[in-house]
Amino acid sequence: MSALGPACTTSGNEVVFDGNPSAETAETATPPAGADPSTSSLPAATTPGTDTTTATGGSAAAGTTTTVTTAVAATTPAALELSDRGIEALTAPVLVDRRFGEGVTVLGPGAERNELYVEADGYVAQPSWSPDGRLVAFSRASDTGSSVVVSPGTGGSPTAYETPFVVFYMHWSPDGRFVAMLGSADAQVALALLDLDTGLVQMVDSAISYYFHWSPDSSRILAHLDDSRLQIIDLSSKEITRIAAFDFVWSAYQAPSWMPDGRSILYVRPAGNQEEATDELVIHDLESGRIEVIGTGGGFFAFAVSPDGTRVAYSLHNLARPTSMYVVDPGSGEVAELDAPNAVAWQWSPDSRKILLLGINEERRLSMEVYQDGTITAYPGVTPTENFLRSYIPFWNQYAHSHTLWAPDSSAFVYAAAEQGDDYVFLQPLEEERPVLLGAGSMAVFSPRT
């Protein structure tokens, strides 16, 4: 059986499908269990030039710091072809959202394939792994109501929990006991909690806009509301404590972040001089009240702590100039600048050594690069699926807390690409030049565990 090779060409460093795959090809892209979805390869692609534009923008950490501006040259791989391997290349499970809300599939590890849930009468979306990789939750909506469905990741009987709204985002607590959910209610964004021990769903809070992050011990939720307020919700007492409220913030950001110590939080606040369009990224110690400024600037802030807790990466995006991106070591004050002018979303690898950089150009093509040790390696650009482009990438600062594109061993990442009306999921091993076709799907995320 033929795969996708005959139906595609390449342009620059981008994989471009000439037309819809044939019926035989489409069948190959969604094989039965044990079948190989990619038995041939894509034609070679030329690589782009390595010239890059140095990012500009706000930067310095507070106090005395050592600033290291990293000279990053893009290392583009040689001509790329589609790997002759299929889902057997997976070393950990990948959760796949099928097109049009039709169902949820788990691929791997190895050649395993499990149609976890097939929707007949409604729409399913937002599949998410539990922190231990044992369970999968996803939103379901139909004419009869809305619910969150929880199923074993290896298959089995799913359990549906009725929800007061259609859930458009969910985030498991680190201990796996709760699922925090967002949805629209009374012209606001509402937060509700599903307690898996009791099966109860409870409304907790609401605001015009709502972003949040679980504390490492699962006892509290840090929330950013209405672009100006920070608060902490204590789950045991249901007490809400205001941390900060600002009259005006020049910059936008989405989810705040707990530091791994569970004592400090990371967020953006106005700088002292409100006459200038400048804000500050700060680490706030909740016990001592000490606030450390680790970055300044103006625009759209995105930030994340490395999984090992030693560094903070942040980016500043402004329509008037390229993205500026930095990695800060709060302990030493060292700041490294990344040359990633097109980055609109990014994510730390589980080993804290790499950062996946995603960019969107004017043609809505998705660029994918990996930063490590001062070097950026470019992988072939694709057209992202509508699901990936519209539902995930614009809100990735929130999704990065709950979904990972990285394999648990940091050796590869997954992505979803669309061409000529068809959606596909690919695996990109870092040490290989060719991506692996995994099958059909509009979005894919790795399990946090093997």
Give an account of the 3D structure:
Helix content is 4%, strand content 47%. The protein has 450 residues and is mostly beta strands. The chain has one domain: YVTN repeat-like/Quinoprotein amine dehydrogenase (Methylamine Dehydrogenase, Chain H, 7 Propeller). Mean pLDDT is 83; it is low at 1-80. It contains 3 helices and 35 strands. The strands form 9 sheets. A 5-stranded mixed β-sheet has the order 3-27-26-25-24, with no helix packed on it. Strands 4-31-30-29-28 form a 5-stranded mixed β-sheet, with no helix packed on it. The protein has helices spanning 23-29, 386-392, 396-399; strands at residues 8-11, 14-17, 67-69, 74-75, 94-97, 103-107, 113-118, 123-129, 135-142, 145-152, 159-162, 167-172, 178-185, 188-195, 200-207, 210-214, 220-225, 229-234, 240-245, 257-258, 264-270, 279-285, 291-297, 300-305, 312-318, 321-329, 334-338, 343-348, 354-360, 366-372, 375-382, 412-419, 422-429, 436-440, 443-446. The longest helix is centred in the N-terminal third of the chain and has 7 residues, at 23-29.
CATH fold-level topology: Methylamine Dehydrogenase, Chain H
Query: Percent range for helical residues?
Result: under 10%
Give the overall silhouette.
globular
The CATH homologous superfamily name equals: YVTN repeat-like/Quinoprotein amine dehydrogenase
Measured distance between first and last alpha carbons: 31 Å
Any idea of the CATH class? Mainly Beta
Task: Show unreliable segments.
Answer: 1-80
How many strand units? 35
